[in-house]
Amino acid sequence: MTALDLSSPVAVVGTGTMGQGIAQVALVAGHPVRLYDAVPGRAREAADAIGARLDRLVAKERLTAADRDAARARLLPAGELSDLADCALVVEAVLERLDVKQELFCALEEIVSDDCLLATNTSSLSVTAIGGALRVPGRFVGLHFFNPAPLLPLVEVVSGFATDADCAARAYGTARAWGKSPVACADTPGFIVNRIARPFYAEAFAVYEARGADPATVDAVLRESGGFRMGAFELTDLIGQDVNESVTHSVWQSFFHDVRFTPSLAQRRLVESGRLGRKSGRGWYDHRDGAERPAPHTAGPEPAPAYVVADGGPGPASDLPALIREAGIEVREGGADGDGRLVLPGGGHLVLADGRTAGERRDTVQFDLALDYRGASRIALSAGPDTPARTVAEATGLFQALGKRVSVIGDVPGMIVARTVARIIDLAHDAVAHAVATEEDIDTAMRLGVNYPLGPFEWSRRLGRDWAHALLRQLHERDPSGRCAPSLALYRHARATEKQESTP
Questions:
Q1: Every domain of the chain and the residues it spans
Q2: CATH 3.30.10.20 for the 195-211+218-280 domain, yes or no
Q3: Which terminus of the chain has a lower count of CB atoms within 10 Å, N or C?
Q4: Considering the entire predicted model, what is its pTM?
Q5: What is the CB-side half-sphere exposure of residue 421 using CA atoms within 13 A?
């Protein structure tokens, strides 16, 4: 894909954190860069701030002094929009208001040439709606960088309804030439990352609202079992509860109040109380000086069982029998056609979370999904109200013997990691079915944009093609609001698998 020539000037309008970051990326790549801000003096201040960051890169030996000096010479504050007339690309990073952005681009259109690419860095507004006000909407595209732009590699290249394919290709090629990892996507609410990431927050909040577990425990399970870099509660405290809720609300509204994207009442109350996270000192956690971080629930020590009976193949938990043997616990073989449960010495059953509650089955403890059962340092368990304490103790002792911390949570269907991963997989399949992006670009976006340990389709292939559909179907039976109903795309995916397996 053709990138802009390095001799072509690039302009950035809006000199806040994102604007400065985008300008620095283009500048270090080798372009002449013009900075413009409607507030007098801001562009000069931004140029000075970028120069200071270049100095720090030199001090860290990530940039030579000669390259820094050349970059500074290419960076020019612009006093008027008309100073951007010869630019080949203008990227906007101003206030997230449709009218403000439309007014800006209409003014730019009267200044720049018709082959100049116009790009918005919006994260929540429709690229199609912004470009709809333009005389030449075909050269308008979304270039959604992630903060901090100089460090994070992902750029979502968003094609609006009227965006010309060659313009989108030129924007994609330019982002790649700047050292970024671009992904192509259609103009959809939330684009790729903010659309598909909603369940990561929503399921954590749902578990909390159902009194299944406290924030510290949910976060610990997501990190130490699910392999996520941060838990949902600590991450939203970092992002800002108001910011995260605003994105959720925007996606929900843009999908005409689709129940799958319904915002959290608990988060709404947090925002209303002014507990916005780190920036306000308190959010889900207390971030004030001297405040202690609450510890996740961790079960006390229990003796390991002498043996377990493996009744059929354990599916996604296929590593467990080997790990149990390595811990010196005998694994006896049960029926080959069993449903994958482990039978404990006391007669209780240990089963992988499948969307049902533990209380629906006699004498049963459920364990949560893990990214890697060998590497996981924590496992969540749940038991029904009538599950004997003996069974809970034996299940706890078993995982402790494998070197895992154990968190016993409430009897929430789908537990924590399993329901979260299943819903992420579902939204990813739905996005592909609606031509939002390819499977490869979605996996890339979720790994690079939000640091997921695996992309949704990588998860899907690892867990089995029907796993997410089966779990969500069970969740939907228990909560028929539609929030967890599997999409038509996931249903077709699962049915295709069944047909393939039944073909002689």
A1: 10-187, 195-211+218-280, 307-409
A2: no
A3: C
A4: 0.95
A5: 36
194 tagged catalytic: yes
Concerning whether 144 is annotated as a catalytic residue, the answer is yes
Task: Return d(Cα 213, Cα 408) in angstroms, integer.
Answer: 9
Catalytic annotation, pick one of 31, 144, 287, 297:
144
Residue 246 annotated to the active site = no
Intrachain domains 195-211+218-280 and 307-409 with the same fold: no
What length does the chain have? 504
Q: Are 72 and 48 in contact (CB under 8 A)?
A: no
pLDDT tens figures, 393-448? 999 999 999 999 999 999 999 999 999 999 999 999 999 999 999 999 999 999 99
Cβ atoms of 10 and 34 within 8 Å: the answer is: yes
pLDDT digits (tens, 9 = 90+) for 141-180: 999 999 999 999 999 999 999 999 999 999 999 999 999 9
CATH class of segment(s) 307-409:
alpha beta
Catalytic pick from 194, 250, 264, 460?
194
Nearest alpha carbon to residue 417 among 283, 232, 157:
232
Catalytic residue among 92, 156, 234, 394: 156
DSSP category for residue 40: T
